[in-house]
Amino acid sequence: MNAETSTQNPFPTSAESTAGSSGAGGLNGEATRVRRMAQSLHEAVDSLEQKIGHGSDRVMGLQEEYGTMAREQVRANPLAALGVAFAAGFIVARILR
Predict the structure, then answer these.
(1) Which one of 62, 72, 74, 96 is at 20 to 30 Å from 48 when CA atoms are compared?
(2) HEC secondary structure over the chain
(3) pLDDT digits (tens, 9 = 90+) for 53-96
(4) CA-CA distance, 67 to 72, in Å (whole number)?
(5) Spans of all domains in the chain
(6) pTM of structure
(7) Distance separating alpha carbons of residues 97 and 89, to the nearest angstrom
(8) How distant is the alpha carbon of residue 89 from its chain centre?
């Protein structure tokens, strides 16, 4: 590996790409295009990761909320919960036969 490639980041962040855009270091048009494409893909992945993170937080909140609600219902009506569980098991057993 030569000194030029070992010190230059092939996938710079947006701050690095704006700071180093004036000195392209002898890159031809194809390499510059690939670098820009890689940068845009990197930003898209970051954006997707952020959206998924927010979505998973929301799902975890809903799971906790509905879990708490289900526990309260079972504590308030244990026989009804037992009957619903038995009926669900009976139906699943009939379907899987």
Answers:
(1) 62
(2) CCHHHHHCCCCCCHHHHHHCCCCCCCCCHHHHHHHHHHHHHHHHHHHHHHHHHHHHHHHHHHHHHHHHHHHHHHHHCHHHHHHHHHHHHHHHHHHHC
(3) 888 888 888 899 999 999 999 999 999 999 999 999 999 999 99
(4) 9
(5) 3-96
(6) 0.41
(7) 12
(8) 34
